[in-house]
Amino acid sequence: MIKEIVVFANSVKHENSCVAGKCTKTKEWIRPVSNAQGGEISNEQTIKASGYRLQILDKVKVDLSHHAPLDHQTENHVINQTQWVDAFFIRNHQVEDYLDAPDNLWGIGDRVSHDEIVNNQEVTNSLYLVKVEELELFKNRYDKRRARFSYGGINYDLAVTGREFDKHFVTNSTFLRDVIICVSLGENYEGDCYKLVASIIC
Question: How far apart (Å, rounded) are the C-alpha atoms in residues 159 and 197?
């Protein structure tokens, strides 16, 4: 099954890649994964048939084997091992056509209990593309990449897996205004699914 998607995240996962995008026809989220357990994609797989590496806002045609939803990641589709084909790209001003408008990002805090997801079945998705007025990028005392921002009247402080962090981070605290971010629920880690800033689009 061939799907054309706009890439809104190509973040770091276990030293490889976690890719997510929206179908150009339906605007539905698709997270290509390497196996039914939601495995990351190798960095080699993100080199397109053109020879160029996958970039945010690229349009690509992806060969998907089958839908493989998990309790916390319903958008997962296992990929076939064929190269992704360029279908050009969208420009920054077109990103707003793909924005989501949730009331909040899975409630307060930086994580959601996996048991809560399974038992309450209130979390039906794991990806949002939202616009924030101000984004603060910083590194904590463990030198981990973090981002602070407000959405829906709630303040968030989340880990950043998006590769764009290094491009934008300048000083101890770097502030960006009117930024679009992709926020993702990560894999189950010791009973929690952490909220992650998977891309930063300026």
Answer: 6
Query: Of 91, 122, 148, at which residue does a domain stop?
Result: 91
Alpha-carbon distances of 123 from 17, 35, 39, 153, 159, rounded to whole Å: 24, 22, 20, 20, 20
Do 103 and 186 lie in one domain? The reply is yes
The tens-digit pLDDT sequence of the chain (202 residues) is: 999 999 999 999 988 999 999 999 999 999 999 999 999 999 998 999 899 999 999 999 999 999 999 999 999 999 998 999 999 999 999 999 999 999 999 999 999 999 999 998 788 999 999 999 999 999 998 899 999 999 999 999 999 999 999 999 988 889 999 999 999 999 999 999 999 999 999 8
pTM of the model: 0.94
Q: What range defines the domain where residue 149 resides?
A: 96-201
Whether 21 and 68 share a structural domain: yes
